Amino acid sequence: MWAEKSVFYHIYPLGFCGAPMTNSQEGEVSSRLNLIYDWIPHLKSLGINAVYFGPVFESVAHGYDTIDYFQIDKRLGENEDFKRLVNFLHQNDIKVVLDGVFNHVGRKFWAFEDVKQHKSDSKYCSWFRLDFSHDNRYGDGFCYEGWDGCDDLVKLNLANPEVRAHLLSAVAMWQDAFGIDGLRLDVAHYLSHGFLRELRQMCQARNPEFWLMGETVFGDYRRLVNPQMLDSCTNYELYKALYSSCNDNNMFELAHALKRQFEAGKGIYEGLKLYSFLDNHAVSRIATMLKNPHQLKALYGLLFSLPGIPSVYYGSEWGIKGCREKSDSEVRPQLILQEGNDLSCHISWWAEFRKKSDILAYGGYQELEVNSKLLVYRRYLGENKLDFAVNIGEETQKITHDGKEYLIQGYEIRIL
After folding, report:
1. Would you call 355 exposed, middle or buried from its count of C-beta atoms within 10 A (0-12, 13-18, 19+)?
2. For residue 381, what are the β-bridge partners?
3. Mean per-residue pLDDT for 243-272?
4. How far apart are alpha carbons 2 and 167 in whole angstroms?
């Protein structure tokens, strides 16, 4: 599938385009999506050939509180604006993946508004999980289940065939009207397996190359990534091991995670093409997470050379900082397009190298040597192989590999 040879760029559109924090229902449509056109040459220079857009549909505030699955958020533009953008990205050989937020909706979602107005007489009561024997803090006259205790996010009842049909019809519209190439499913670990099977069947019947990736923060990835449900999911285990190994000067942690996941004959996710990242809209920027900024280039080299489908979060190619603990807006800002720097050039080189390598896209993983600051590893496909050494420490390390001696400089990642 196309995603296996892709390098993703992750954009959070509402922040990227400088949209207001909340959506005024009386507000005018503003075609802020047009700002993205100026960035497309930059994406191509980075080696990007797929973009994952965070929420773009009508919502209350941050995009994960959907109002209408069939309309682009007026803070971003109109449906035709997005259709033109997708067409232009496709003309530049860039695939497009959208955020599918199907576990919950915002309090202004049209069916929930009907429940608020008509209470137990609403024909949409069964779309949600409601309790009319108690009230909530909004004074709606009933209680409802929210996402992880967040009562601004109303959980949908995916056991209801009408709800599933509504969501599937929206996805069908996105495929037909916009020509998108895949979906990233928000909090996929909370979605019912029956719904995921229905979604896969419908999407692939319309387009056999349609790619489904799920946000999965915990649990066994194979519960969702399998031939009946998803093609991929977010590899949070590898994400944590990457930055934590650097911060603790403990490459044994990364080595353990890689062997656990991908070791030949033993790895629990051997053969899966998981979605790899160093940061995203829901965590602090990697330049903020790292205690030692000199390790940043080595980390990106690892991201592109280890098993997985690599993704760069917008702006992190320049090493910008942002702390999620302070506010969401710190990691979801509007940015001014910058000139390339040493880090972005480094990422561009690795992106192009990975796109051309079947070994990195499809190959297996083998650990060759490890100590607290060094990892030597092999990627292989059939008889072909690529060997790498990464040194996250300041001091040079000497290794012997295939009968030759190598000096691996501090903070260096090298193809042997």
Report:
1. middle
2. 384
3. 97
4. 25
Q: Which domains does the chain have, with CATH numbers?
A: 2-102+160-363 (3.20.20.80), 104-157 (3.90.400.10)
What is the percent of the chain with per-residue pLDDT over 90, rounded to a whole number?
A: 95
Helix ranges (DSSP H) in 9-147:
13-16, 40-46, 79-91, 110-118
Q: Which residue has the tokens 């994952």?
A: 52
Query: Quick one: DSSP state of residue 156?
Result: B
- 244: tokens are 């934590």
pLDDT of residue 127: 98
Stretch (H or E) spanning 276? strand 275-277
How many helices (DSSP H) and strands (DSSP E) are in the chain? 12, 21
Helix (H) or strand (E) holding 389: strand 384-391
Q: Give the model's pLDDT for residue 149.
A: 81
- For residue range 40-83, list pLDDT tens digits in order: 999 999 999 999 999 999 999 999 999 999 999 999 999 999 99
Residue 212 and residue 203 in contact, taking contact as beta carbons nearer than 8 Å: yes
- 318 within 8 A of 344, measured Cβ to Cβ: yes
25 has pLDDT over 80: no
**How far, in Å, CA of 227 to CA of 205, rounded?**
14
Residues 47-71 as b or e (16 or more Cβ within 10 Å = b): bbbbbbbbbbbbbbebbbbbbbbee
Q: How far apart are CA 59 and CA 74, in angstroms?
A: 9
The tokens of 88 are what? 């232009």
Q: What is the DSSP letter of 129?
A: -
Element (H, E) at 105: strand 104-106
Residue 91 and residue 169: Cα distance in Å, rounded? 26
